[in-house]
Amino acid sequence: MTDRATPVTSDLEFPTQLITDGDVLDADVDYVWRRLLPVVEKLDEPIHLVRVKLGMAEIGRPLRATAQVLVDVHGDLVRAHVAAETMSEAIDRLKDRLVDRLDHRAERRKYRRRLPETAEPGQWRRGVRAVPRPAFYDRPPEEREIVRRKTYALDAMSPDEAIFDMEQLDHDFYLFQDVTNDSDALVARQDDGSYLLMRLGDGNADPGPSAFDIVVSDARPARLTPEEAVEQMDTLGLPYLLFEDADSGRGAVVYRRYDGHYGLITAE
């Protein structure tokens, strides 16, 4: 790998770094800065770092050009990661993806300012602010039911981006579509500060460089009905369980609610 720290631009008010891997041309380096820096310079918050990585795999591999960017926006790490047939196409996609991620961050921050400080008891809801967790009500197993069902169109993103969204929303887990192996996946916060990554597809696929401590599970989630997933979750004593929905073949999660019942999240 080669570290090319200085972009071909005018003076900047923030540090930059660019790392290349493989046959990346100087013209590609110039092009990525010309595409990305105008996007970053429009932000009205302090920028602490812009780090870019461009990679070219060997000839013959599909989507051999990869492009990644990390922008530290006032302490928030905003990431984008794309792949394409050519480097110029990857850079164009990266610029569009970065704009989307920055817009997403702005919308989330605006939304969180409008949210109530707490969620209703026993509910998992997108966007609730961080509060001390109530204790689980130990409802007898024969009284437990799936009382909340939600279906979402999963966002396609890298594990790093999923962790960022999960932390922004203060969730314990996050269901998403993993672009690094093209399958439904889940990231979850662990007690030691690391993050668990579970996938329906190839568990050995490289999740790419990360600012987080990610532990990749090599266990493939089972194909189950929601009722079977609940039974397995209770047998294993877990607070949630990722599984492959027996009807749709998509990722789904059952989880314990604080009221002692269950919630179900499925991919659209």
Question: What labels describe this entry?
Answer:
268 residues, 25% helix, 5-stranded mixed sheet, 4 helices, elongated, alpha/beta
What's the topology here?
Blueprint: E1 2-4, E2 16-21, H1 26-41, E3 47-56, E4 65-73, E5 76-84, H2 87-114, E6 146-152, E7 156-157, H3 159-169, E8 173-178, E9 183-189, E10 195-199, E11 214-216, E12 223-224, H4 226-236, E13 240-245, E14 251-256, E15 262-267
Parallel strand pairs: 2-3, 6-15, 7-8, 10-11, 12-13
Antiparallel strand pairs: 1-2, 3-4, 4-5, 8-9, 9-10, 13-14, 14-15
Detailed description of the structure:
By secondary structure, the protein is an alpha/beta fold. The protein has helices spanning 26-41, 87-114, 159-169, 226-236; strands at 2-4, 16-21, 47-56, 65-73, 76-84, 146-152, 156-157, 173-178, 183-189, 195-199, 214-216, 223-224, 240-245, 251-256, 262-267. It has a 5-stranded mixed beta sheet with strand order 1-2-3-4-5. A 5-stranded mixed beta sheet has the order 6-15-14-13-12. Helix 1 packs parallel to helix 2 (87-114). The chain is elongated.
